[in-house]
Amino acid sequence: MRPLPVDNEKLQSKDSWTGAKIRDVTGNSGAYIGQQMEMRLRWQAIPKTLQFETGWAHLFKGSFAKNAPNAPSNKSDVDYFYFQTSLHI
């Protein structure tokens, strides 16, 4: 079995922090949330029918994400992983 060539682009904009309700009314935590790096691999097992995708994202927390009064107490960077299958019938 050989992977087939795939022409695939993705452009996305998302504000995930608004819903987190992390606030600092004093402004003392800084303004930098952080930087996120992402990687995604997608394979069309059966063209236009079955697709597998896996991905990883790493958030390098900035001063705001680490120091806001109601931010999570874990100040370490965060990794996110996922795997998904899409079946188009």
Low-confidence blocks of residues: none
Instruction: State mean pLDDT (0 to 100 scale).
Output: 84
How many helices? The count is 1
Give helix and strand order, one letter per element, not per position: EEHE
What percent of residues adopt helix (DSSP H or I)? under 10%
Number of strands: 3
Q: What is the 3D shape?
A: elongated
Q: Kindly, what is the distance between the CA atoms of the first and last residues, rounded to a whole number of angstroms?
A: 22 Å
- The amount of beta strand, in percent, is 35-45%
Radius of gyration: 18 Å
Strand line-up across the major sheet: 1-2-3
Structural class: mainly beta
User: Major beta sheet, specifics?
Assistant: 3 strands, antiparallel
Structure description:
With 89 residues, the protein is mainly beta. 6% of the residues lie in helices and 39% in strands. It has a domain of 54 residues. It is built from one helix and three strands; from the N terminus they run ββαβ. It has a three-stranded antiparallel sheet. Strand 1 and strand 2 form a beta hairpin. The two termini are 22 Å apart. The mean pLDDT is 84.
Key features of this structure:
39% strand, mainly beta, 89 residues, 6% helix, three-stranded antiparallel sheet
In summary, what is this structure?
With about 90 residues, the protein is mainly beta. The chain contains one helix and three strands.
SSE inventory with pairings:
Elements: E1 34-46, E2 50-61, H1 63-67, E3 78-87
Antiparallel strand pairs: 1-2, 2-3
